[in-house]
Design a protein that fits this description.
3-stranded antiparallel beta sheet, 7-stranded mixed beta sheet, Aspartate Aminotransferase, domain 2, globular, alpha/beta, binds pyridoxal-5'-phosphate, Aspartate Aminotransferase, domain 1
């Protein structure tokens, strides 16, 4: 079994620790732990290990599902990982809409055959017919990330429903990674609420600013959730008891305050980045969420050369487009506090 090196994670490993400003993070800035009660009581496993049943029932309500149709995980990453393990093995096939977060195609590629269907720049439109053409009798899952990393494209309800119908017709699943969904002002219904063939994965990382809780979940049909739980027994056993304790508060009494504050920050920062790109004659698709995919200007061989110059000369981390299959783009994350974003943009401006 082989899995490709996770290019973006290695890039972060090379530069993030030493750099002054991080403009390559795709989520909103992190919240302080001090706003939460941090005493979960005894530091054992979460029991039962798939997550507290009452809390799972509350999360399941968001999808019109039952408690046993939700599995708590260590972030979206584990949610996706154990879902892929439960759906795919040798001889199976998956269709993955790309560009996307590398884990969403690299893990399926290590388990089964994968056909990637590419979004169409510059608007990053999704061609539903191309997905239909890619489907085979062995297709188990269509994989979507909506809103999309790295482009910030939020595919419409009609498009997602069309993909769901394709999955339904083939007796396959539509798996949607919705980790950026609640950064949208007007979020679409989650895919797991669409019917028996819908699976949603998400976490507190990107929209809430709580990556360190490592708390996420899968919502979907019980047979998939049950099988994912079987794999999870061999990975992390249970979610973290701290993560679950903070998650109760973040998804409870604090939720409206957190999400409103985060969306406001995203809106203000997005406008600032749009102005900055205009000043420098750079193009992007006006994104949902807090990361955008930007064209590389003349004078740089590709996005990697530009990103290396920016980090080595000005200590600001950006993400090269090559990690998403587009050498002539770079990804900028603008979820940081406004003053940090400003410092970062001024430094990027000097290199440009
Ligand atoms: C689409 C997508 N899914 C999952 C993750 C990982 O998120 P988590 O911290 O919830 O594991 C990322 C991180 O960048 C992402 O972009």
């Amino acid at each position: 079994m082989h899995v490709d090196v996770f290019g973006l994670e290695r890039w972060f490993a090379e530069y993030e620790h030493e750099a002054d400003v991080m403009l390559a993070e795709s989520g909103i800035r992190s919240l302080d732990a001090s706003r939460f009660d941090l005493d979960p009581g005894k530091l054992g496993y979460v029991i039962p290990t798939n997550g507290d049943p009452e809390f799972r029932a509350r999360v399941a309500d968001r999808y019109d599902r039952e408690a046993d149709e939700v599995l708590f995980t260590c972030g979206t990453q584990e949610a996706n990982f154990v879902t892929f393990l439960s759906l795919l093995s040798a001889g199976d096939h998956a269709v993955v809409v790309t560009p996307t977060y590398q884990a969403l195609h690299a893990v399926p590629e290590s388990l089964a055959e994968v056909t990637r269907v590419w979004l169409e720049p510059p608007e990053w439109e999704l061609d539903v017919d191309a997905v239909a053409d890619a489907i085979r009798p062995e297709t188990q899952v269509i994989v979507l990330n909506n809103p999309n990393n790295p482009t910030g494209r939020y595919h419409s309800r009609e498009t997602v429903e069309a993909l769901y119908d394709l999955a339904d017709d083939e007796d396959a699943y539509l798996l949607c990674d919705e980790v950026y969904r609640l950064l949208a002002e007007d979020p679409l219904p989650p895919v797991a609420s669409m019917g028996d063939h819908g699976i949603s994965t998400t976490s507190l990382t990107k929209a809430y600013g709580l990556a360190g809780t490592r708390f996420g979940w899968i919502a979907g049909p019980e047979e998939v959730v049950e099988s994912a739980w079987q794999w999870k027994d061999y990975a992390t056993i249970s979610p973290s008891v701290f993560g679950q304790h903070v998650a109760r508060q973040a998804l409870g009494e604090q939720e409206a305050d957190i999400l409103t504050g985060n969306r406001d920050l995203a809106t203000r920062n997005r406008e600032r980045v749009a102005d900055f790109l205009d000043e420098h004659g750079l193009d992007w698709y006006h994104p949902i969420g807090v990361n955008g995919f930007v064209t590389v200007p003349d004078g740089f061989a590709d996005g990697t050369e530009l990103c290396r110059a920016v980090v080595e000369e000005e200590s600001v981390v950006l993400a090269p487009g090559e990690f998403f299959g587009y050498d002539d783009y770079f990804r900028i994350g603008f979820g940081r506090p406004a003053d940090e974003l400003e410092t970062g943009l001024q430094r990027v401006g000097r290199v440009l």
